[in-house]
Amino acid sequence: MHRVTLGGFELSIFSDGTYPLDGGAFFGVVPKVMWSKRVTADDRNYVTAGLNSLLIRTGKETVLVETGMGNKLSERMIRFYGQPAKLLDNLAAGGVAPEDVDIVINSHLHFDHCGWNTVRDKNGKMVPTFPRAKYYAPEGEWQYARRPSERDAISYIPENYDPLVASGQMTLLKGGEEIVPGVSVETFPGHTAHMLGVIVNGRPGFERARLQAAPSAVTKESGALAPDCTTACYISDLIPTTAHIDLTWGMGFDLYPLDTIESKKRYYAQAIPEKWLTVFTHDPKTPWAYVERDEAGRMVVRGAQITG
Ligand SMILES: [Zn+2]
């Protein structure tokens, strides 16, 4: 269980499971001789991708960032990806019932990020999985998802969001909004044009909030704790795993690869000096860590050490 406290907030990672992804697609133009030093592919060239959601308990609200792949994939997609569908079980094991979630935020609307937004009830009707929650997603992304390009049309499953928009349960965001005090969104173009990062500030006015562990959170992570870490960011598919931290290591799926590089620069310009904890949406092993630049200027990952 990955759990830390950030100021007055408790942050936990809940996974919807893992799925196989073509290594070439995952690393875009990066040659396999390079990426295979970081990630091992199987004999079909598949690597393992995670589906990490971030749960934020602010003390007032329970906020869920991203809802994984869900349980509504078509037969064809299940052949590619399987359908791990573990998020609700994992939340339940962590003491979180669907009714407990007050807010759901989707960074973008690809099927592997908003799959548990909705479920089919026993009559086949599409209903919100988190019945009390206010849902949020980027407006430009939703507009695009209504008429996606041939290239990424397969990534959009309207049942994940259209019923929520139609019922008024999903609010569409411009980017830059504060959803609740301490949880805000910012647009980082590249993977898609309107993808959001979700920025979590321990608590406004909370002085020098410290990253500490709940007793249950002792993990294998190593490295020194950044005592002045007050901010975490769910940067989504801008930096999907710890293997993608270099500026030019974008995914083949990115619609605007040059924007990915610019957005990463903008992110690091703030996240590195301010020691933000970066959450990695698709990393099956390291859901969060600090990204730093070493003496040679290379990007490196340092574990978020958990001290009790
Ligand atoms: Zn993704």
Characterize the structure shown.
- There is one protein chain.
- The protein is of the alpha+beta class.
- The protein contains seven helices and 17 strands.
- A hairpin with a 4-residue loop joins strand 3 and strand 4.
- The longest helix is centred in the C-terminal third of the chain and has 15 residues.
- The chain is globular, with a radius of gyration of 18 Å.
Summed over residues and divided by their number, the pLDDT gives a mean of 90
Hetero groups: zinc ion
State the secondary-structure class: alpha+beta
Name the overall outline: globular
N→C terminal distance: 14 Å
Return the string of H and E elements.
EEHHEEHHEEEEHHEEEEEEHEEE
Low-confidence stretches: 204-225
In what range is the share of β-strand residues? 25-35%
Cα radius of gyration in angstroms: 18 Å
Strand neighbour order, sheet with most strands: 9-8-5-4-3-2-1-13
Range of helix content: 10-25%
Oligomerization category of the chains in this entry: single chain
Tally of individual helices: 7
Give a count of the beta strands, DSSP E runs of length 2 or more.
17
Task: Let me know the largest β-sheet.
Answer: 8 strands, mixed
